[in-house]
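Researcher: Structure prediction, please.
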Amino acid sequence: EIYEVYENNDYNKIPSFITTDAYLQVFHEYFVYVLRTLEENYFSPILMDLTKNMYNQSMNIASAKSGNQLLQETAEFNAFYFALANNLLTNDNLPVPERYKKDFDEQKRLINEANKIVWQSPLFENSRIDYSLFKPRGNYTRSEKLRRYFRAMMWLGNTPFPYQKDKSLARLIFSSSLLLSKDSDKFMKKYLAIYEPMELLVGENDNPSAFDIVQVLAPTGAVRNGANNPANN
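Model: Predicted structure follows.
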């Protein structure tokens, strides 16, 4: 701790050269406290609700058996995807489509072990996934709730969806379109309740996100205001 240096100088009557490091450390401590409080008390409950709602919407579409094979496969994948995110947050076991039951168990094992790189994951269009990044660190080791939140956010933020590939792009569009469904007021507000404060605190995404796709699917004003636009459907 930097204050120990100044304290030691005080005791030994050594003049201190005051640098910006002291200010930066205080600022950092304050920033970390604000972020931790938001994530633990505000973002985590919203994310629990949002992932469960996204799962329910996906399962409803998958269960409808529309006859559209791409839609069916995409809905089932997204049901699995959000069921796992919700499980990482809550430890609840939401039923997943039969074809993804083994994937659910395998992904959860890899995430909890957090010590392996999969160079070509068939689940994500042969993309690389570094599961060691799922090991909670720093601020996120303070409580079980924060550890769970960390793993869920890593799953949602770091699993690859290469939009140059048709299947991945379909999955991204499907998830984004759920935010603009008939319940878009509820879904979009919850999504933005996490997205906007996080963008303010840590900066914009380096890569295209679900929100970028939402911006294409609906007018910016309608999205930001959580308005229900008939074109969204």
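Model: Confidence is low (pLDDT under 50) at residues 220-233.
Researcher: Thanks, that helps.
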